[in-house]
Amino acid sequence: MKKVLLASASLFALSALAPASAADLAARPYTKAPIAVASIYNWSGFYLGINGGGASSRNCWDVNNIFGIAGPDTAEGCHNATGGVVGGQVGYRWQSANWVFGLEAQGDWANLKGSNTSVALAPLVNETKIDAIGLFTGQVGYAWNNVLWYVKGGAAVTHAKYNGSAFGVVLDSASETRWGGAVGTGLEFGFAPNWSVAIEYDHLFMGKRNNSFTILGINDRIDRIKQDVDMGTVRVNYTFGGPVVAKY
């Protein structure tokens, strides 16, 4: 009987001490949650890049002089010179709020070829080959963090070679470096710190120019050639200076 009473007393004492022991435990200290950091893409800085794609040049020929005898522009017809382009670009951008401004120079090797049979001088075939394109433009864009839409405009230059052939034999030829204007637009996406990829479309207004054709060193005709170029490229740029900044 004494053993039973002793066990009961022990259980009662333990049950009385348990709430006090729980109350004596220290409360967990409050820890403030860390401040969230938002990454903001900054488009400012110098950049270098490469580009590649395709282009089509519309060329319309009008003969206005044959062996030194001048005459009115007489249509010979038009053709599209099409092919690929690949090259690079270098530029600088600066950003103010969401607005982005920039200057850029671009140079591309090209392989645009096309031909048509002359309406006025058949069976002569007029051939165009554009082997180089350059752009010198200013840019204005609007950025949504790492997405940038921009428009551009400025000067353009092409280098072209022209041939007149018959039955596969080149009879006369001319070449020129031509300056004109350019407008374009692009959408660029920053996919990693310093790196971005873009798609771009440009239209080149190259106007009309007289070109003197020679055969065996003798001028045999002058053609007034109107030229325009449409070009679409994919571009990859690397911007120097760390374009991602933290915003608290």
UniProtKB/TrEMBL annotation:
Keywords per UniProt: Cell outer membrane, Membrane, Signal
Boundaries of every Outer membrane protein beta-barrel domain copy: 13-208
Cellular localisation: Cell outer membrane
Transmembrane segments: none
Principal subcellular localization: membrane
Span of the signal peptide: 1-22
Pfam families in UniProt: OMP_b-brl
Entries under InterPro entries matching the protein: Beta-barrel_OMP, OMP-like, OMP/PagP_B-barrel
Family membership: Belongs to the Omp25/RopB family.
The protein's name in its UniProt record: Outer membrane beta-barrel protein
UniProt organism field: Bradyrhizobium barranii
The organism's taxonomic lineage, starting at the top: Bacteria, Pseudomonadati, Pseudomonadota, Alphaproteobacteria, Hyphomicrobiales
